[in-house]
Design goal:
The complex is a heterodimer of chains A (about 140) and B (about 170).
Chain A lengths: L1 H10 L6 E10 L5 E11 L4 E7 L5 E10 L2 E7 L2 E3 L4 E4 L4 E8 L7 E8 L3 E11 L3
Parallel strand pairs in A: 1-10
Antiparallel strand pairs in A: 1-2, 2-7, 2-8, 3-6, 3-9, 4-5, 4-8, 9-10
Chain B lengths: L1 H13 L17 E3 L12 E6 L6 H14 L3 H4 L3 E6 L7 H8 L6 E5 L2 H8 L3 E4 L2 E5 L2 E4 L5 E5 L5 H11 L2
Parallel strand pairs in B: 2-3, 3-4
Antiparallel strand pairs in B: 1-4, 2-7, 5-6, 7-8
Helix pairs in contact in B: 2-6
The chains are: A mainly beta (about 140), B alpha/beta (about 170).
């Protein structure tokens, strides 16, 4: 048993360690411009890190966190975010989010595939239905 | 000399003691065009003003949504008595055509492309810093009364109820 666990550890995090939930993709009116992806990563294993997100629906994506300093809203670019062991990483409106830049052609109701890349768990594919940023 | 001093004193009495953005200060002039191509002018009715940009994926749409919900929660007879003004701080990308396409999703909002961003920053004492494709900017919603005086400021994250309560104070 311990040998099996050791093998799994060497291969990286086993399937099912991370669960992606509550994914919401908000796209701009008219379908062009910047969108935002929010979701929750539940981790049932050791600490991991979200390194990047990619999708064909956008020219470029970045991990961004909205920070209010004084009365000024700033977008802080992050290289990665930790997903705590046995904990959660929450991306939510007004806080951490994946910014999708250069969106075009996506309409509310469309299914969009986003690939999340984690340090330990590797790539995870998420299918999320787009909704208007004004909803 | 004495008359000059008296006139200055009288002028001081009729002007605001504190400049924008102090509560009670008169809203500065704003030179620009709306999404319809018209020259912008403040309307003589309670107005919610926000400075942002359409390529903003998080703060700006959340704020415009909050404003929309605040107004939707007013009695129907009062809703048309409120003006909403969205001033872009990204006039290079936010053309009036783009504002028209974007703002239609947020209800009856007048978008403004300012003629001079530096003059806008100075007059309204707002922060605007460009960083790649994003813009750091003041995220306060300003409420003007019918006379164009600043009645309240709502920080980012203020709920619709708070804005609605502020509007109720200045609506007839």
């Amino acid at each position: 048993m311990s040998a099996v666990l050791l093998c799994l550890a060497l291969l990286g995090a086993p399937d099912g360690t991370l669960e992606i939930a509550d994914a919401v993709l908000r796209i701009p009116p008219g379908g062009t411009g910047s969108g935002a992806l929010y979701l929750t990563v539940k981790n049932r294993g050791p600490e991991d890190r979200l390194l990047a997100a990619s999708t064909k629906a956008a020219r470029h994506t970045m991990l961004h966190e909205t920070v209010i300093e004084g009365d000024v809203a700033k977008m802080v670019h992050a290289k990665s975010w930790p997903v705590p062991a046995e904990g959660t990483l929450v991306l939510a409106p007004g806080k951490k989010h994946v910014m999708l830049m250069g969106m075009s052609g996506t309409k509310p109701g469309d299914e969009v595939v986003v690939v999340l890349r984690f340090e330990r768990a590797g790539e995870r594919r998420v299918v999320v239905r787009a909704r208007s940023i004004a909803e | 000399m004495r008359w000059t001093l008296i006139l200055l004193a009288l002028a001081g009495c009729t002007k605001d003691a504190a400049p924008w953005p102090a509560i009670g200060a008169e809203v500065p002039a704003l030179a620009g065009v709306t999404q319809d191509g018209a020259r912008f002018a403040w309307a003589p009715r309670p107005t919610l003003v926000f400075f942002g940009y359409t390529f903003c994926p998080d703060v700006c749409p959340l704020t415009l949504l909050t404003v929309k919900r605040a107004i939707e929660g007013l009695p129907e007879a009062q809703r048309d008595g409120v003006d909403v003004v969205f001033v872009t701080v990204d006039p290079e990308r936010d053309t009036k055509e783009r504002l028209a396409e974007y703002l239609v999703a947020f209800g009856r909002v007048r978008g403004v492309v300012p003629n001079d961003i530096e003059a806008l920053k100075s007059a309204f004492a707002i922060a605007v810093e460009y960083e790649g494709e994003t813009v750091n900017h003041t995220s306060v919603v300003f409420l003007l009364d019918r006379e164009g005086r600043l009645a309240a400021r709502f920080s980012h994250g203020a709920p619709p109820d708070e804005m609605r309560a502020g509007l109720s104070e200045v609506l007839p």
